[in-house]
Amino acid sequence: MRYFYFLLPLTLSLPVVLAAQDYPANPEPGACYIRCPIEEVKEIEKVVTTPAYHQLKVVPPVYKTVEERILVKEASKRFEYVPAVYREVVDTLLVEEPISKITIHPVVTLDTFEVFEIEPAYSRFEARPPIAGCTSPNPADCQVICYVSHPAVTKTIPVKKIISQPNYTRQKQIGRFKTVRRQVIQTPATVREYDIPAEYATVQKRVLVKDETVDSTLVAPQTREEVFLVRDNSANAEPYEWRKIECKLLDYNILPIYYNLNSDQLSGKAKAVIDEKLLALMVKMPEIRVEINSHTDARSSDDFNLELSKRRAKAVVDYLVSKGIKRSRMEYHGYGETQLVNHCGNGVNCSDAMHAKNRRTEFRVLPH
Which of 155, 159, 260, 358 is most exposed, with the fewest beta carbons within 10 Å of its own? Predict the structure, then answer.
């Protein structure tokens, strides 16, 4: 789209002309205006791509170790002439109580898609090239407009759906046992009697304090942001408005930034100038577009100077983009040494100050 700018003369017929051309109402004499598109109103909504679910985790069992004193040889009597006769007994002891083993079955999801409408359908009048050969002095008589319908714009977004929720199963395990051998009296001693004291052993056992359990953690849903157009694009909606602007901004304005020899890198001082002269303007007036041009002197080859000027103009655009300015609001050109402001062309002996006048970067506000 292109803007149109003009100086408004103070004449008696001005109100009639402006009304016919849909120009600004009640203009100021000598002021400049620019026709700006009304910025589209958009809403950002969050789309859930993966719903929330609970993630399960097995918490290990808790044991405590205890010691138990057990009898491994009973007390007896020993006789001097006939000793006692023993027989061996084998006992099986439970030294680790069994647990209930838990197995986790994770969540099962399905990858699918959902279609969202991100821009509604609309219809509007659109301009076409004027009638060829029209001789009417009034441009409105030659104007051609068409009522055009635009379909809705949709977007397919990948999402996940849960087929089955996570769960778990429990299976009882077998405990751990230990075999202990001990002796018991089969035949007691006779004749002279002696007391034989009992013998004991200490056995460590792991006692189950807390069985395996399941810990549940809520996994937050995964979302993504989608932009939906909500501004009315129908034929009755006015997409433009007139904004007052300084007339000097419509002409080329010098951007006093300087580069090192044969370099397109912006210095800190150059960035500060851009911030003050151009960035502040584009932030204050987000509806305008600008043109940025760079020029060189004639002291290198034509091809080198042309390429260098393009890179220098692009460096200004890239810097503004890094500051949040949309690239679509800017266009840039490099003219090399093709638009010198003085006579210092190829082979002409000039001072450094004369050459410096040709090494310039300019900007102006563009009509849409």
Answer: 260
Query: 330-334 and 289-294 as β-strands: parallel, antiparallel, unpaired?
Result: parallel
Q: What is the pLDDT of residues 291-300, one digit of tens each?
A: 999 999 998 8
Q: Which of 361, 296, 363, 360 is nearest to 325 (CA)?
A: 363
Q: Which residues of 289-299 are buried (b: 16+ CB within 10 A; e: fewer)?
A: bbebbbbbbbe
Q: Which residues pair with 39 in a beta bridge?
A: none
Question: From the CB of residue 245, how many other CB atoms can be counted at a distance below 10 Å?
Answer: 20
Q: CATH for 252-368, among 3.20.20.10, 3.30.1330.60, 1.10.3210.10, 3.40.50.1110?
A: 3.30.1330.60
Nearest 10 degrees: CA dihedral of 136, 140, 144, 145?
-170
Q: Is the pLDDT of residue 31 over 50?
A: yes
By C-alpha distance, which of 62, 97, 64 is closest to 213? 62
Tokens of 160: 């996940």
What is the separation, in whole angstroms, between the first and last Cα of the chain?
Answer: 5
Number of Cβ within 10 Å of residue 189's Cβ equals 19
